């Protein structure tokens, strides 16, 4: 399936496809989503089939604006309105108690629903043209690296997708921060560009990190967002020794670095990313994909600092590596 250039006509066509229960891949500011009409369980079932995703993993419902929250959420707490005002449209997903009418196919059988207003203009136009909510996971096969370009979607998903809207590369590049507001204490289920401190500053409340809670999100599983090539995280000071060692054994090594100074030698394929997390993020998945496509023996990834700005990157790298 070739990606379709974005025009007003192609957006209208994509909205029609959604109305007819078809799947549409579309850009968001985080990653490309694989969308279906969230009110149509048969359409939603196609998402799980196309991705090879287990049916009990819930999907995020994308809506055109915060005023639509009450169409999906049973109770919209004050905290949700405040976060929406501050961060929507943007890379934040809120988990709220669902309305009776929200299909269980969307929520993986849970009594909560994930909602997000994406900040990408193509996504917003599509949501407005469609009118309803669009259930959309990242448009990759289950467990694989999320797509940040239309071409990634085309490589990974087959004809089960009726249309891939090509909105160019995603500006943020890592999936949205997920905050669960359905319980007493707000809990971050997945770190993203919007940090815990930013959320705290708006809510003036303690915010838990999900490490203690049960697995409710596929992104919380140990291996996810993963290349096929064996990938290892290494601190900068051991990366070079490790690369030398593996090269001496005849391996071809991919390196994803942002600070380590590494001499170019033929057995190494080095990709350098920016040392600023907000610039590193949009390049992360396409770089992992590029290295994964080179048929290397091992990918060594320089360990980023243990700093809040790097929380999303560290989370994804921990899951992409063994
Ligand atoms: O940035 C993003 O969030 C992208 C774009 C396309 O919007 N979407 C995305 O979807 O990353 P997906 O399906 O790959 O990840 C959604 C995460 C999953 O970990 C899922 O379990 C969690 O959201 N989630 C959705 N609804 C939930 C719910 N009711 N309770 C707990 N977790 C939920
Ligand atoms: Mg995903």
> What is the CA-CA span between the terminal residues?
32 Å
Name the poorly predicted regions: none
Largest sheet: 11 strands, mixed
* Main β-sheet, spatial strand arrangement: 1-8-2-3-7-4-6-5-9-10-11
Mean pLDDT: 94
User: How much helix, percentage-wise, in residues?
Assistant: 25-40%
Give the oligomer, counting copies of the same chain as homo and different chains as hetero.
Answer: single chain
Small-molecule binders here are:
threonylcarbamoyladenylate, magnesium ion
The backbone outline, from C-alpha atoms, is globular
H and E string: EHEEHEHHEHEHEHEEEHEEHEEHEH
Separate helix tally: 11
Short summary:
This protein has 322 residues and is an alpha/beta fold. It contains eleven helices and 15 strands.
